[in-house]
Amino acid sequence: SASSAILFQNWRRRKAIARIPPRPIEIRSDEIVDGVIGLIGNTPLLRINSLSDALGVEILGKAEYLNPGGSVKDRVALKIIEDAEAQGLLHPHTGSVLFEGTVGSTGISLATVGKAKGYECCIIMPDDVAIEKVQVLEKLGAKVERVRPASIVDEKQNLARKRALEFGNTALVDPQKSDPELVVSTKAEPSEVGHETNSILSNNIIKLPEILRPALENKPRGFFADQFENESNFYAHYKGTGPEIFRQTSGNLDAFVSGAGTGGTIAGTGMFLKKALPDLRIVLSDPEGSGLYNKVKFNVMFDLKESEGTKRRHQVDTVVEGIGINRITQNFALGVDVIDDAYRISDEEAVAMSRYLVIHDGLYLGSSSACNLVACVRLAKTLSKGSRIATILCDSGSRHQSKFWSDNYLTQNNISIDPSIIDRLLES
Ligand code: PMP
Question: Which family does it belong to (predicted)?
Answer without folding.
Answer: Belongs to the cysteine synthase/cystathionine beta-synthase family.
